[in-house]
Structure formats: C-alpha cells, structure tokens
C-alpha cells in the first residue's frame, strides 16, 4: 500500500550514442518535472567519456544534481556493458552489437532485479530505447509499465514496425540500386526503395547484429504499453494516425527543446562555447554554411576531400565540425594536407561545437548534414535549410522527409554516395544564394513555426505529453492494484 503514496518511479536507459542520449536526458527532466522520480542509467563508458571531455561545461552528474537542487527526484547511475572502458566500440561495431544483443540483456536483468530486490515497491515503469532487444521481456518479468522512446521520425519507426510487409513484397532484403515504389505500408502513401532505412538493404545484411537488433527491437516494441516519438504530429500525421490503430503512440517532440525545464538544457550546457561565436559575428547574415556529419558516421578520405575542395570552390563561408573518428580507415589525420592554410578566413574547422547555438546564429544560412534525426530537427527548429548527404540507418529516410515532403532542403547528390567537388561547389552556391534559396528559407521557416508551436501550452506535442502522463498514471495505478 505504501508505494501508492510515493512518486511513481522509472528506470530510464538509452543506447550509448549522442543522438539517443540527448533526447533521453531531456525526457528524464520533463518526466521528473511532472511529479515522477527517475533513475537515469548511463553506460559506464559513456559516463567516463563525458566526464573527461575537456569541452564539457557540465557533466550529466552536474545536470542531475542541479535538477535535484531545484526539487526534481533524479538519481543517476551507471551500468557496465561488459567491455573494458578503453575497448573501441566503434571500430568493433559488429562484435559490440552482437554482445549488446545477446549478452547485455542478462546484465540489465540483474541490474533491475537488484534495484527491485532492495525495495520491491521502488520501480513502477521502464523507459527504454526502442532499439534495445530486451525491454518487453524485462518489463514483463518485473511487472513494470513499459514505455518505449523512439528517437527518430515516425516514418522510420513505421518501416521497422512493418518489416514483415517489406519482406512479403520483396523489399527486405532490398536490392541496393533499385528504384521501386513502396505503397503498401499503412500510413505511408509512397516511398522509393532508395529511401528505405539502410538495414533493409541487401548490402547491409552482413551487419548481422544490427539487422537482428532492429528485428528484435520491433518485436519487443509491439508489447510496449506506450510509445513516445521524438517528432511532431502535424509533420507526420498520416503515419502516426496509422500507428495508433495498433498501439498508443504519442508524438511529443522535439524532445531536445522541451520548455519549462530547469533553466538549462542538456544540449546547451553539455558543450562549451568555442570561438565560433566571434567568427560568426564577423560574417553577414545567412552567409555561412554549417557542415557536420554527426557523431558516428564513417566515410572515406575521398568523400572528405571532394567535400573539402567543393566547399573552397563554392567560395561560401563555412564552419565545419571535423570529428576525428569519421574515416572508416581509422586514420586520425582527416583533412587534405595544407587544406587549412588554403581555407584562410573563408572557413572555420573545429572538432566540436554547441550545434544548436551555432545553428541559431543569424550568420548561418544553411546546414550540410548527414541527416541524423537530431541534427535534422535542430536545423528545422532554427529555420535553417539543409543540403542533405545521408549515409546510413535512418538518414536516407530522413532526407526524403526533408527534401520531398517538407521541402526545406535539397540533396547534395541524387541517390548516390559518390561526390564530385565541382558538383558540390555548384550545389552549395545555388543553395546559398541561387533562385531556389528564397523558397527553401520560406519552407524552413514554415516548419520552424510548426515545431515551435507544437511545444506551446496549446500545441500538439504538449497535448500528447499531458495525455501520456495521464494514461501512464492510470496504467501504473491499475498495475499496482492488480498485484495487491
Ligand atoms: N552535436 C553537437 N556538436 C557537434 C556535432 C553534433 O552538439 O559539433 C550534437 C547535435 O546537436 C546532435 C547530436 O550531436 O544533437 C548528433 O545527433 P544526430 O542524430 O544528428 O547524429 P548522430 O551523431 O546520431 O549520427
């Protein structure tokens, strides 16, 4: 009986990538601000990496202790994935995901079991990443309400949810270079096979663990009590309405911009200011192209070189976040020899920045992006049009949404990964100042308005969040009463 008088309590755990961690952190703060208690779980290696990152203003520990000072109940803890801290998880991606798929669930089981053993009434619900292969099994075993957070657009979710339909229609596995129409998935009017998530592509089938993981994740999510989406209803209404026929889905995004949290957000506080701001202030409005390919994408030296010289040939000002681990060869020397000398004041090459702050700067006129979902939604939040250069996973599908549906971006290349510096230069020049640039900016501003309004008190995402909290409380109550 005593537990009913406590705050309902969740364990929250995301996969260990930046694009998942940020939405989880913001959601944790938002749920805690609504009268819940949270145990936030990081992978141990992520905790170490974030704690020692020299450009961090605040670690997650600082953020959570600040949250506690302002009255929120958030505990912070870590779980080991079973590998030493120094193990290179990106370089050994296949082995690592194989382990996460098969061995990690037993660790989560033990971890949740221990918390519950210490206090059988402590945990009421689980908020886990849809990508994991274990949430339904664990929730069922410990009688927890099961909340799944999907950090990408609903279109991508729907494709994963209906893998069986893709298979029946010969599109899973899907030949790499075919262009066929997919018009049989509920909630998707039409999508080309070229824009499908990369895990269904024939060439990806060697990535057994990732493909299997997607399979298992989508099997598990079919047993979730609630599915939260980091998207906005107005942008994906048809897809979300179709999904609601199967399970309760709530479009609550953009999660990284939730309002009325304690006076900081993770995205703003995690990375320090660099000298970007000063450099940007010396440039005219809308004149600078921001270039970043996210935290994980691996590519070839040749692609980097063509983009690098394409940028120079375009004569457009640019800021380029060049992450050390971006080359699939593992080389850390990424830029062509002498490149930075040639760039002079035309460009700023930096290892990391506060992306949202950079995108919000009036000097930024466009974003050359890999279309990771966070980058995509951050660009739209700031009303910045995109040049899309997707590589893997959800990125080709996100490109389709940006270019074909929302019309706030263009593609760098049409359906191919190979790039040529002259074409890059032409594309960038016309994107930044050509005839189409005005309408791209107008469309970007329309999408921006939709996103901002969604989080207002009377906006759709705030409405869905409120409804989720109400439904969650009812579900927790009925679960507790049923075990008494
Ligand atoms: N990011 C950042 N500074 C950078 C580059 C990226 O803060 O210099 C953040 C960006 O704001 C986004 C996340 O890292 O929130 C990248 O997520 P996304 O989904 O775009 O790509 P991923 O890294 O998952 O491929």
The CATH topology of the largest domain is given as Rossmann fold
Spatial arrangement of strands, main beta sheet = 3-2-1-4-5-8-9
- Total strands: the figure is 15
Low-confidence spans: 263-272
Q: What structural category do the secondary elements indicate?
A: alpha/beta
Rounded mean pLDDT score: 90
The CATH class of the largest domain is: Alpha Beta
| C-alpha end-to-end distance | 8 Å
Radius of gyration: 22 Å
Named CATH architecture of the largest domain: 3-Layer(aba) Sandwich
| H/I helix tally | 20
> How would you describe the shape?
globular
What ions, cofactors and ligands are bound? Answer: uridine-5'-diphosphate
What helical percentage do the residues reach?
Answer: 40-55%
So, the CATH homologous superfamily of the largest domain? Glycogen Phosphorylase B
Gist?
This protein is of the alpha/beta class and 484 residues long. It contains 20 helices and 15 strands. Helices cover 44% and strands 14% of the residues.
Folded structure, characterized:
This protein has helices at residues 18-33, 44-52, 60-69, 93-102, 104-118, 135-141, 154-161, 163-168, 208-221, 237-243, 266-270, 276-281, 301-314, 339-343, 355-360, 373-381, 395-405, 421-433, 435-454, 460-483, and strands at residues 9-13, 37-43, 73-79, 125-129, 145-150, 181-182, 191-192, 226-229, 249-251, 288-292, 317-321, 347-350, 364-369, 386-388, 409-411. By secondary structure, it is α/β, with parallel strands linked by helices. The protein folds into 2 domains: 8-259 and 457-483, Rossmann fold, CATH 3.40.50.2000; 273-451, Rossmann fold (3-Layer(aba) Sandwich), CATH 3.40.50.2000. β13, α16 and β14 (386-388) form a beta-alpha-beta unit. The model is unreliable at 263-272 (pLDDT under 50). Bound molecules: uridine-5'-diphosphate. Uridine-5'-diphosphate is lined by residues 17-19, 22, 267, 271, 292, 294-297, 321, 352-356, 372-375, 378. Belongs to the UDP-glycosyltransferase family.
């Amino acid at each position: 009986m005593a537990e009913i008088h406590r705050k309902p309590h969740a364990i929250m755990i995301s996969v260990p990538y930046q694009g998942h961690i940020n939405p989880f952190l913001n959601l944790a703060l938002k749920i805690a601000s609504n009268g819940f208690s949270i145990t936030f779980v990081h992978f141990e290696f992520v905790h170490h990496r974030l704690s020692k990152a020299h450009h961090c203003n605040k670690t997650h520990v600082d953020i959570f202790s600040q949250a506690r000072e302002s009255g929120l109940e958030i505990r912070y803890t870590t779980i080991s994935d079973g590998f030493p801290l120094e193990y290179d998880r990106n370089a050994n991606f296949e082995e690592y995901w194989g382990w996460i798929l098969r061995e990690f669930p037993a660790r989560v089981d033990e971890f949740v079991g221990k918390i519950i053993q210490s206090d059988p009434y402590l945990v009421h619900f689980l908020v886990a990443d849809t990508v994991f292969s274990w949430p339904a099994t664990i929730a069922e075993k410990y009688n927890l309400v099961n909340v799944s957070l999907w950090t990408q657009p609903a279109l991508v979710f729907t494709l994963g949810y209906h893998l069986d339909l893709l298979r029946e229609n010969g599109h899973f596995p899907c030949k790499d270079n075919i262009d066929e129409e997919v018009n049989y998935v509920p909630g998707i009017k039409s999508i080309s096979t070229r824009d499908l998530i990369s895990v269904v592509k024939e060439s990806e089938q060697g990535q057994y663990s990732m493909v299997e993981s997607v399979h298992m994740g989508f099997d598990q999510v079919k047993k979730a009590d609630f599915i939260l989406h980091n998207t906005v209803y107005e942008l994906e209404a048809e897809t979300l309405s179709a999904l609601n026929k199967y399970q309760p889905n709530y479009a609550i995004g953009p999660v990284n911009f939730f309002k009325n949290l304690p006076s900081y957000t993770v995205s703003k506080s995690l990375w320090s200011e660099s000298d970007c701001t000063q450099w940007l202030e010396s440039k005219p409005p809308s004149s600078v192209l921001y270039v970043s390919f996210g935290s994980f994408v691996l590519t070839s030296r040749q692609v980097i070189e063509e983009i690098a010289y394409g940028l120079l040939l375009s004569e457009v000002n640019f800021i380029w976040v060049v992450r050390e681990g971006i080359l699939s060869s593992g080389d850390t020397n990424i830029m062509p020899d002498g490149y930075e000398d040639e760039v002079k004041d035309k460009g700023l090459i930096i290892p990391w920045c506060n992306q949202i702050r950079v995108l919000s700067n009036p000097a930024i006129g466009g974003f050359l992006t890999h279309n990771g979902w966070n980058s995509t939604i951050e660009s739209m939040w700031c009303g910045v049009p995109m040049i899309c250069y997707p590589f893997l996973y959800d990125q080709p599908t996100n490109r389709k949404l940006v270019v074909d549906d929302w019309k706030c971006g263009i593609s760098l290349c049409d359906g191919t990964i190979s790039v040529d510096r002259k074409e890059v230069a032409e594309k960038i020049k016309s994107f930044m100042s050509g005839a189409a640039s005005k309408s791209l900016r107008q469309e970007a501003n329309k999408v921006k308005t939709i996103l901002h309004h969604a989080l207002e008190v009377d906006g759709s995402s705030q409405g869905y969040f409120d409804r989720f909290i109400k439904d969650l409380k009812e579900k927790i109550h009925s679960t507790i009463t049923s075990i008494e």
